[in-house]
Amino acid sequence: MSGFAAIGECMIELSGANGDQWRMGFAGDTLNTTWYVRALTNPDFAVDYVTAFGDDPFSVKQRNFLRDNGISTARSPTIVGSRPGIYAITLTGTERSFTYWRNDAAARHLADDPDVLARSLDSRQVIYFSGITMGILSPRNRQNVLNAVSSARRQGSLIVFDANYRARLWENADTARQVLSNAFHVTDIALPTFPDENTLFGDATPTDTAARIAGYGVREIVVKDGTEPALVVAGGASTEVPASQAHAVDTTGAGDSFNGAYIASRLAGLDPLVAAANAHKVAARVVEFHGALAPMEEAQKAFKA
C-alpha cells in the first residue's frame, strides 16, 4: 500500500479582490485537503485526486493545474459535453458565503463506472472522501463510492472521512443522515466539524458527536470546532487540543487544511495529538490568505513551526 487518493469535485473558485474584480482559481473541499497533503508530504509520495473532468478549456486548465502542483488524477474520466462547477466567495469581514453553479458539473459522474473508480483507488495507503463528495452524486453513484471505499478498506487502505454536511446538496435531511452514517461505517479516521454535526444530527456537544461516531465503529475521531479546541478521541482517551492564534482574512480553507495537515502528520507516523496540533498551526496560517489554497510553502513553514 502506498500513496494518497481523495475523491471529490474540483471547482472553479472565484474570490473577490477589489470592487468587481475577481480572481479565478481551483478548489473544492476534498481538493483543498489534497493540496495540503501534497504540500506536507515527501515529493516522492504519490498524491492523486479522483474526480471527473469535462472536455472544455477550463477542464484542461484544471488537469494542468493539478499536474503542475504534483497532484495526479489516477483514472479520472473525461465526460464529453460536461464542464466544471463554479463557486464565488463573498466575504463579510472574515466570514464567507458561497454562490454555486454546479448542477451539470462533470464531477457528478465520477462514479458512473465503478470499475474505473476502483482502479483509481487500488493499493492506496490512505483514501479520503467527504459528505460533499457524496452529496453531489446520484443515489446509485453514492453507493458506487461506498462500495469502492469499502472494498479498498478490506484490502488494507486506511479510510478518512469528513461528513462536511451542506444541506443544499441533499434531497432532505433524512437522506443525508442515512448516507453519511453509512460512510462513517466504512471509516477509520473521522474528521467531522461540530457545527455541521449539530445541525444534521442534533449533537449537543463535540463529546456527543465523538460518541455517536464511535458507535459506528470509528476508532480515531477529531471533532473540529472553528477557533475552539479540537476534540481528539483515540487510543481510549479523549483530549482537547487548543487552536492556534491567527489574523484571519478568509476562513474558506480552514477545515480542509486542518484535515490535510492531520492526514500528513499521521502518514509521517505522528500520534493523533501531535497531528491535531500541527493541523491547527497550518489552518491558522491558511486563513491569513484569501481563497482556499494558500501557497504550499507557507503551509510547510507552519507545519514545521
Keywords:
single chain, 305 residues, alpha/beta, UDP-N-acetylmuramoyl-L-alanine:D-glutamate ligase, eight-stranded mixed beta sheet, four-stranded mixed beta sheet, 11 helices, 12 strands, 39% helix, globular, transferase, 2-dehydro-3-deoxygluconokinase, kinase, Carboh/pur_kinase_PfkB_CS, Ribokinase-like
Rg is 18 Å
Provide the succession of SSEs. Answer: EEEHEHEEHEHHEHEHHEEEHHH
Distance between the termini: 30 Å
CATH class: Alpha Beta
Strand content: 15-25%
Structural account:
By secondary structure, this protein is an alpha/beta fold. The protein has a single domain, classed as UDP-N-acetylmuramoyl-L-alanine:D-glutamate ligase (3-Layer(aba) Sandwich). It has eleven helices and twelve strands. An eight-stranded mixed β-sheet has the order 4-1-7-8-9-10-11-12, sandwiched between helices. A four-stranded mixed β-sheet has the order 3-2-5-6.
Task: Briefly characterize the structure.
This protein has 305 residues and is an alpha/beta fold. The protein has eleven helices and twelve strands. 39% of the residues lie in helices and 20% in strands.
SSE inventory with pairings:
Blueprint: E1 4-7, E2 11-16, E3 22-27, H1 29-39, E4 47-50, H2 57-68, E5 86-92, E6 95-101, H3 114-121, E7 126-130, H4 131-135, H5 139-154, E8 158-162, H6 173-184, E9 189-190, H7 194-201, H8 206-214, E10 220-223, E11 230-234, E12 237-241, H9 254-267, H10 272-286, H11 296-304
Parallel strand pairs: 1-4, 1-7, 2-5, 7-8, 8-9, 9-10
Antiparallel strand pairs: 2-3, 5-6, 10-11, 11-12
Helix pairs in contact: 1-9, 1-11, 3-5, 9-10, 10-11
